[in-house]
């Protein structure tokens, strides 16, 4: 099934109860910034999958895209866990409460948990790979010219990105600065290093050398 919304850049949003409920949840519990970004991630991820000839479950890709930044929300800021895991766990609860098969739940959880871990998702199931591809396109501009100007404009017209670069960096900072230890070994340490005074990023070499093991 496809939604009443006409296809955007040839991509349709799944018109299922699951997708509709995910849309409502994310729209009602996050900012317009995160909502629009999440929808763009779905469109750009789906375009990448289509262009690469991948067979993927559009509904699972949509759920992964919509939940991928949910963990940046205020209610997760004292969780002590990576925001990606918070979002992945929320998606898992959402899917399990609706009787979704465990293999599908696993794919969505993995897609969200790994979306800021480059170099791994691309070798996994299409839904996992394409959530990361959509994020990398919308946030980092990776593969920018692989989407036509016309298709890109259609997606951004539906889900605009005013001052997106600065606003998403602010959202990252606000979401992870209360738990800076969760940035050890991942790209979000760069965010705190730029925007949080006094932040010291974890050092893998120093951690090894200062471990309690005697030599």
UniProtKB/TrEMBL annotation:
InterPro entries to which the protein is assigned, alphabetical: HD/PDEase_dom, HD_domain
SUPFAM superfamilies associated with the record: HD-domain/PDEase-like
HD domain residues: 35-122
TM regions (residue ranges): none
PANTHER family in the record: CYANAMIDE HYDRATASE DDI2-RELATED
Name the record gives this protein: HD domain-containing protein
């Amino acid at each position: 099934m496809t939604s009443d919304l006409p296809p955007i850049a040839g991509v349709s949003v799944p018109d299922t109860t699951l997708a509709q409920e995910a849309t409502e949840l994310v729209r009602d519990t996050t900012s317009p910034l995160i909502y629009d970004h999440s929808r763009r991630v779905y469109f750009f991820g789906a375009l990448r999958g289509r262009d690469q000839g991948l067979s993927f479950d559009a509904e699972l890709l949509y759920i992964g895209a919509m939940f991928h930044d949910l963990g940046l929300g205020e209610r997760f800021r004292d969780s002590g866990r990576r925001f990606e895991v918070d979002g992945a766990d929320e998606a898992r609860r959402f899917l399990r409460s609706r009787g979704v098969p465990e293999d599908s739940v696993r794919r969505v959880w993995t897609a969200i948990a790994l979306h800021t871990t480059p170099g791994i998702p691309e070798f996994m199931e299409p839904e996992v790979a394409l959530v990361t591809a959509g994020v990398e396109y919308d946030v980092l501009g990776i593969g920018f010219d692989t989407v036509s100007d016309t298709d890109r404009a259609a997606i951004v017209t539906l889900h605009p990105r005013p001052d997106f670069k600065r606003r998403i960096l602010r959202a990252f900072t606000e979401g992870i600065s209360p738990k800076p230890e969760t940035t050890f070994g991942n790209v979000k340490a760069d965010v705190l290093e730029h925007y949080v005074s006094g932040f010291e990023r974890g050092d893998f070499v120093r951690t090894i050398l200062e471990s309690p093991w005697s030599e």
